[in-house]
C-alpha cells in the first residue's frame, strides 16, 4: 500500500510544477504591462513632456516589481542577441531591439543606432519641431524593420537627424547574418523572476490584486468559503439522490420505473445546466412572469440576532436553485454508473445465495450490492469535483454568488493576473488532489489495484 | 440503455441537418435577395458575394447598399429575410413572435427580436454556423493529435517497437535539439514569416536533428544495444499530466489573456485540451485489435509494422473512434456556448447561441431569447450523446 501511495504521489509535484510553468508563461505573455499600471497617471503624462524622467521612473517601478531580472533560470536564444537583453525594462523597447538584431545579426550596430535615436528623441523638444519629434518618438517603438527604413529615408535633410540616418545606414551595410546561425544558452542562476515568484508562493505570500491592491489571500479566502458551501451541498445532494435511484433502477431492472427513469436521466444529462439556470432565474426570481418565488441575488442578508432557524431559512431560499442546477447533471451521471455496476453485481452467485436465504430485495440491494458496486462511485468523485468547480463559474455568475467562479470571471475580465493565476493553480491543485485521493481510496477498497498496478476494467 | 434504432437515426438526421444549415446559412437567412431583377438586370446578390470575396467576380454596378429600400421588378428572398446582427429599429425593443410587428410586406420576425430589433431566427442560423465550426474544427485538431499518439501507444504497447538505443535516444533528444535550433537560429536566418513555411522548417529541424544524433550515437557501443521503445508508458504519463490541468479554468484565463478574440483561437485551444479523450479510446481499441488473428496473419505474411498499423489496424478502429468523436463534438459545442455565454474569447460581433442566451438575462420576460437557443443547444448535445453512448 505504501509503495502504491508513493508511486502515485511522485507524479503530483511534476504536474504541479508544469502547471506553475504554464501559469508563469501566461503571466509573461499577457499583452498588458503591469509596470505601466503601477505608475500613477501623471507619471504617464511625463512620457510626452520629459521622456528621460519617465524612463527613469519606469525603470525604478520595474525594479520594484522585480522585472529587471531574467524571466527564468536559463535562456536559450540566438547568439546574435546579448545575454543581458532582459535589463532593458520596457517590453516594447526590448521587442524592437530583438527584431532588429534578429534581422541584421549585428548587435553593436543596433545598439548604436538605438542609442542615437533615443538621444535625439529626448533632445528634440516637441515645442520646437512638433513633426520631427513625433516621428522620432514613433520610431522608438516601431517594430517593423522595413517601415523604420522607409520612415528614416523620408526624414528631410536636417543636421539634427543626420547622425540617425548614418547610424541606420551603417546598421544596414554591416549586416552579419552568419551570426544568426549560432544558438546560445545562458545560465542566470536563482536570481530570476520565476524563482522569486514561486518561492513567494511557497512561502504563502500570494501577492496583491492589481485592481484594488488587496492581498489575494483575503480575496480568495472569502470566495472559497461560499464555493465550498455550494459544492459541498451539491455533492451531498448528488449522492443522496443518485444512490437510491441507481440501486432501485438496477433492482427493478426492465420495469417501467427503470425505463422511464433511464430516459429521464438521459435527457437530464443532456440539458445544459447553464440554460436551465438561466431559465430558472428568468422565470422564478424576477417578477416578469408573476412567479417571483425565490430571491435573486447573492446569499441573502441576515438580520441582526437571527435565530438559527431563520439563518437556515434565508440561506436555503438563496441556495436552493443554484445547488439544484449544479447537482442535476451529476445525478444522471452517478446513478447511471451505479446502475451499471449494480447490475453487474446482481448477476453474481452470492446474490443468488442471499436470495435463497430469503432476504428481501431491499436488504440485498442495500447490504450486499451497494458495498460492492460502490467502487466506481468512489472514482466518480474525482471526476465530479473538477467539473463542479468549473461549473460553479457559470452558476455563480448566473445567480450572482460571490464565490470563486465569480472571482475568476471578474479577475479575468479586468486582467487582474495575480488573482487569475492563483485561482488556476488552486483549481489544478484541487483537481490533482481529487484524482489522487480517488485512486488511493480505490486502492484501499480493492486490493487488486495495489497488486497489479492497474484498475480492473470498469464493469 | 438499449440503443434504439429511431433514436440513432433521429440523432444523425439532426446533426446532418445542423451541418446543412451551417453550410448554407447565408442562403437561409440574409438581408439581400437570392435572385432579384433590378432595372432589367437579373442579379444573384448572395451568391455574387461569395464570388467577390474569392476575387472571381466584380461587384455589381451600381452597388445596392440596402436591398430593402430598393425597387425591384421581382425578387426571391431567403426564408428568413434578415441577417444576423442587422438591426431593425422599427421592431426594436424585444418584439415577441406573437406581437404586432411593423415589417410591411416582408416576412415577420418569426422568433421575435432583441433590443435593437435583431432577428432571433437569423441569429440562430448564424449561431449554428459558429457551433459547427468550433465543434468540427476542434474535433479535427484533437483527432490530428490523438490518432498518432493513441495509435502508436495502443498498437505497439511497450514491447512492439524494437531498435537500437542510438535510434530511440538519438531521435527523441536529437529531434528536440533540432527543433530548438530551427526555431532559435534558422527561422531568423532565412527570415521566414509565413506560417506554413515555419511549420515546415520546424518539422525539418526535428527530423534532421534526430537523424544526425542517432548517426553519432551509433559510434558508441553502449548505444548499439537493441531495446524496446516504451511508447505506451510515455503516452500514459502524458495523458496523466494533461488530465491534471483544470481545462475550463485555464481556458478562461487563456482566452482573457488574448487581445483580439477570434474563433480560431477557441478552436485550437479546445482541440488541444481535449485530445486525451480521443487518444485514450483509440489506445484501448488498438490494444484489443492488435491481438486479433488477422493482425497475426498479416505479421506472419511479412508485412511491415507501420503498414499493418495504418492499412489494417487503424481502419478497423475507425468505427469506435467515430462514436467517441460524436461525443467530443457535443462537448466542444457545449463549451463554445458556455464561453460565448460568459462573453469570453468569442468576438463580440459574432452572434452565437450562447450570446443570445446571455442577452436574455438583461430582459427576463423576453422568453423567446432564452428558450430557442437553449432548445437548439440541448437537441444538439442530446443527439451527440445519443450517438456517442456506448453499451
The outline of chain A comes out as elongated
Q: Give me the count of strands of chain B.
A: 5
Low-pLDDT residue intervals, each spanning 5 or more residues of chain B: none
Structural class of chain B: mainly alpha
Described by strand count, sense and barrel closure, the largest sheet of chain B is: 3 strands, antiparallel
CATH architecture of the largest domain in chain B: Orthogonal Bundle
Number of domains of chain B: 3
Task: Give the largest interface pair and sizes.
Answer: A-B, 62 and 49 residues
Structural class of chain A: mainly alpha
Helical fraction of chain A equals over 70%
N-C termini distance of chain A: 24 Å
- The count of helical stretches of chain B stands at 13
Written description of the protein model:
The complex is a heterodimer of chains A (459) and B (391). Chain A is mainly α and 459 residues long. Chain A has helices at 2-29, 34-38, 41-49, 51-65, 91-104, 107-123, 130-140, 145-154, 162-173, 193-202, 216-251, 256-270, 273-284, 308-346, 349-356, 361-373, 375-399, 404-413, 417-445, 447-452, and strands spanning 74-78, 183-187. A two-stranded antiparallel ribbon of chain A has the order 1-2. The two termini of chain A are 24 Å apart. The model of chain A is unreliable at 455-459 (pLDDT under 50). Chain B is mainly alpha-helical and 391 residues long. Chain B folds into 3 domains: 1-30 and 86-161 and 229-391, MetI-like fold (Orthogonal Bundle), CATH 1.10.3720; 32-77, no CATH class; 164-228, no CATH class. In chain B, 63% of the residues lie in helices and 4% in strands. At the A-B interface, α1, β1, α12, α13 and α17 of A face α5, α7, α8, α11 and α13 of B.
